[in-house]
Amino acid sequence: MIKLIFCLAILLTPGVVLAKVTVAEVNRSLDLINEQSLAARVGEGKGRVLIRQIIIDGFLLKENQKLAPMIKRYRNKKLTPDEVKEIVAAVKKLYVEAGYEKLVDLSYKIDKKGRMTIRAALRE
């Protein structure tokens, strides 16, 4: 949904010159939006974000099952921004160990219902 809004905002902005943008660049932009959103929630005095569910989506590895025990300990807990980054780093480590470091980009989002979705996308 955010990607669609992001793309529509670019297309509908007057005077914008369209350029080729890679998936990695879009994902990095979305990561910055997520970090700013998370920082805004922390800035509101909450300090932590409730994560009810963690979903790994996109290009999946068989080794993703190794993440289940790690992910389980974070579910239904209020996490700091650093703990959220730990989860993403653990997923990234799995892809690096499987040899996909230069082939996959990771992005994440946390919705208002506490679902954290980590998306693994193959680079173009």
Strand content: 15-25%
Shape-level CATH architecture: Roll
Please summarize the sheet with the most strands.
Answer: 3 strands, mixed
The total count of helices amounts to 4
CATH superfamily grouping: membrane protein fhac
> H/E series, N to C?
HHEEHEHEE
Q: What does this 3D model show about the protein?
A:
- The structure is a single chain.
- The protein is of the alpha+beta class and 124 residues long.
- It has one domain (2-6, 19-122): Roll (Ubiquitin-like (UB roll)).
- Helix content is 44%, strand content 22%.
- The protein has a 3-stranded mixed sheet. A two-stranded antiparallel ribbon has the order 1-3.
- β4 and β5 (115-122) form a beta hairpin.
- The protein is globular, with a radius of gyration of 16 Å.
Topology diagram in text:
Elements (H helix, E strand, L loop, with lengths): L1 H11 L10 H21 L5 E3 L1 E6 L9 H5 L4 E3 L1 H17 L6 E7 L4 E8 L2
Parallel strand pairs: 2-5
Antiparallel strand pairs: 1-3, 4-5
